[in-house]
Design a protein that fits this description.
two-stranded antiparallel ribbon; 3-stranded mixed beta sheet; globular; alpha+beta; 434 Repressor (Amino-terminal Domain)
Length: 139
Amino acid sequence: MKQQTVKETVASNIRAYRQLRGLEQSELAQRMRAIGIAWRQATVSEIERKQRNVTVTELLGLAITLNATVEQFVDTRGPASRVGPQLILGDQVDEPTAIPFLPSSVTALVCPHKLYAEVEWVENKLQSMSIKAVDETAS
């Protein structure tokens, strides 16, 4: 089975969610600056090209700016969530001690979703953010 590192997965998912939201790299950087994270267009480019890791603070900021979840950023299946390689907890896919996870098991590493953030952006400025409960009775 194909395998992918966390760094590769996060980088490709940041690019995918940015593109799905119709944002240029400079616009994502502008949104990150709007919430207090000092990013430039070059920062986004370095991350998407796997030349720079994302910190936990930045990952949470990305969840807000791209209206996604941490789980979605570490899901090897990408935005379509259909099929994907195993996630490897290691820096290289061929590391003998790297721990593999099936894409469907990644949720166990993040917490089950009970709440979600609803975010509104206008011209790359954060207008509002509210935390809402997931309706578990809805199908």
